[in-house]
Specification:
single chain, 308 residues, mainly alpha, two-stranded antiparallel ribbon, 16 helices, 3% strand, globular
Length: 308
Amino acid sequence: MDALEMNIRDFQVYMTAERGASPHTLQAYQRDLKRYQHFLVSQRKDELSAVTAHDLERFIQLLAEGSSKGKALTSSSIARTLSAVRSLHRYCLREGIIDVDVTADIEAPIQAKNLPHGLGFAQVEALLEAAGGDDIISLRDRALLEFLYSTGARISEVMSLAVDDVARHARDSDFVRVYGKGRKERLVPFGSYAHKAMESYLTRSRPSLAAKGNGSPALFLNSRGRALTRQLAWTILQTRAQQAGLTQKISPHTLRHTFATHLLEGGADIRVVQELLGHTSVTTTQIYTKVSQTTLREVYAMTHPRAR
C-alpha cells in the first residue's frame, strides 16, 4: 500500500470513527476519492505532498470534459468531488502529513441554481389517496408517504428508523426523533394524518409483514419482512404517483421539497423550516423562498388588475 492509498484509508477511518459519517456519505467520498486517486496515479503523484494547484485545476478540467473511461460530470458532481478532495487535504494538513493545503484557493465551478420542484396540495392528496387501500401493502405505503410529507425527513433518515423509534410516538407524542447527517438528532412534528396512518400500519400491517421475515427492527418492511430499501421506497412512490395520474418526475426528495414549500407558503418562518429540515445553514433553506416568491408572482399576475 503506497502513501497516497494509506492517506485515503486513514481519512475514511477518521470520517467513520470521529465524524460519524453516514454509510451513504462514506460511499460518496470513497467513489470521489477513488476518482482522484486514479488521476494522481496517472500523473505519477504517489504522495499528496507532491500535488500542486495546477494538478487540481487539471483534475477539475478532466472531470468537466470527461475521458475515455467516463463521461463528463455536471457542475454539482464536480463540486461534490472537490469537496471530498478538500476534506482529504485538510485532514492531512491537520495530521502533519502535508505542509500546505493546495485546495484552499481552488474554486468549484458555478452551479446552476435550479429551483426544486414540489407538488401542489391537490397533487399531494391524489398521491396519498392512491395508497388508500386496506391491504397490508397499501397501509404501509400510505404510512410511508404520510410520514415523508408530514416530517420533511430525508429518505435515508426514514429508512434508518427502527420500529421502536416511532411506535411510542404514534399515540403519545406530537414529535418524532430522526437522525440526520453526521448522526445529528432533531425532533420533527408528527402530524395527525401521519399519526393515523402510522398507527394503522403498526397494528394492522407491519405484524403481518414481520411474520414473513427474520425479525428486522426496521420501521418499514418489504413484502418479505425485511428492511425496506431506499430503492424500493423510490419505486413505491413512482408506482403510487402513476396511479394518482401524476406525470411529473417524483422522488422521495420531492415530498421533502413540497413539505418546505408548503410551510413557507403558509407563513412559516424560514428559521423554523431550517430547523425542521435539519439544515446547518439557513442559506441552504433559502432556495425554498424563491419557490414561494414564484408562486406569489403567479398569483399576483392572475389576480391583480394592474399586473398585466
